[in-house]
Design a protein that fits this description.
single chain
């Protein structure tokens, strides 16, 4: 009985050629994964804003139409405005009675920006009186870790992640390029929800809203108001868990689309490159295959050896790619994301699965030149040809 052809002999004796192929496959694996990690930073960073913040605070601004106040039904604008204010106050009081809502008040709101990899993420925080801030921090789970509590006008507390993200220090001016020297950072918060809060400075704000201190069970204000008989209008502005989740899904759809395009382009170039390289690899070994055939090995034996070699090469590239990709992801998190106040994950099993599936596809495509080479194997006479 003939001994099975060894798949390691060529690999052992041709370390340079084999190493080049394995290195190319490994680096392609790492590049695809790192590109995804970089793109995914936007989504990971946005989660704290879009998912965590609305679990503690939401914002609501409704129109006169929603409150049933129509100017033609009043003798004067003053009467209409007075009734509007009364019904607005009734709405606020009804929200306070809702189970899961700790408090609600009509205040100025500041719209800030969190810089991400793909653009920025807008988020809101209230401008309230100093005496309301301790209660707000307790409700949101935020703790003051540096600086002091706001005392005067235009003083704000900013989450530590946002501080890094915007390159701020205590004593600096928040979004000075937009608001000038209007809002001074006097303290740093740790919250895990990117919570910020401050005191108003005149009428420098991004609008007036009902600030709703809710819990995880009352993050859908639209549904809550609908159950209370309010028919919301297009002019109403609701910023709650449902709104933020929609924003997040829209952003992730963009990221996933960009990732899919990148993966497709890389896959096409990778398949072409590997195919060209592997065809050359097989041509250089035709004499070897013919020799095996002359020694009595069947095409099936030779094919089995070729497949075992391919599995070793691709398997090694996948294993090295996994290790190096995760190491690179740690580097991205520690040296790129965290210093910029961005959040990043290391392990994305679904993405790793897609890349591995791509390599399995490449192995499938390589069957074409392998089969062509097998069909071209002859006895030792073919070497002279």
């Amino acid at each position: 009985m003939m001994k099975r052809l060894c798949a390691f002999k060529y690999i052992r004796n041709n370390k340079k050629n084999v190493g080049t192929l394995v290195l190319a496959l490994t680096l392609s694996f790492v590049v695809m994964y790192v590109v995804y990690v970089l793109l995914a930073i936007s989504g990971e960073s946005e989660k704290a804003v879009r998912f965590e913040m609305p679990k503690r605070v939401s914002y609501l601004s409704v129109s006169a139409k929603t409150l049933g106040v129509f100017a033609e039904n009043y003798a004067s604008a003053e009467e209409a405005n007075a009734d509007f204010d009364r019904k607005y106050e009734e709405l606020i009081e009804s929200l306070k009675k809702e189970e899961g809502i700790e408090d609600a008040y009509f205040r100025q709101v500041f719209i800030a920006n969190y810089n991400s990899v793909l653009g920025g993420v807008g988020f809101e925080f209230p401008l309230i009186e100093p005496e309301l801030i301790p209660g707000y921090l307790k409700h949101t789970g935020a703790k003051l870790t540096e600086g002091r509590m706001p005392e005067g006008d235009g003083e704000i507390l900013v989450d530590s992640v946002i501080m890094k993200n915007r390159g701020l220090e205590v004593g600096g001016w928040y979004m000075e390029n937009v608001w000038g020297k209007a809002f001074k950072v006097v303290g740093v918060l740790e919250s895990g929800r990117m919570i910020s809060v401050g005191t108003p400075r005149g009428y420098t704000n991004a609008g007036w809203y009902v600030v709703v201190l809710n819990d995880e069970n009352t993050t859908d204000l639209r549904k809550l108001l609908s159950e209370r008989g309010y028919t919301l209008d297009q002019g109403d502005r609701i910023i709650d868990g449902v709104t933020y989740r929609r924003y997040y899904e829209e952003n992730m759809e963009t990221i996933n689309s960009a990732t899919s395009v990148i993966f497709l382009v890389v896959m096409i170039f990778l398949i072409i490159s590997v195919l060209v390289t592997y065809v050359s690899y097989l041509r250089n070994r035709m004499n070897e295959y013919c020799l095996y055939s002359s020694l009595g090995y069947s095409r099936g034996n030779i094919y089995g050896m070729m497949m075992r070699e391919m599995l070793i090469l691709v398997g090694t590239a996948i294993l090295l790619g996994l290790v190096l990709s995760l190491a690179a992801a740690v580097g991205v998190r520690e040296f790129i994301a965290f210093p910029k106040g961005l959040l990043s994950k290391v392990f994305y099993p679904e993405t790793l699965g897609k890349i591995i599936s791509m390599y399995v596809l490449i192995m499938g495509v390589l069957q074409i030149p392998v089969i062509i080479s097998i069909n071209g194997v002859r006895t030792i006479d073919a070497i002279e040809d």
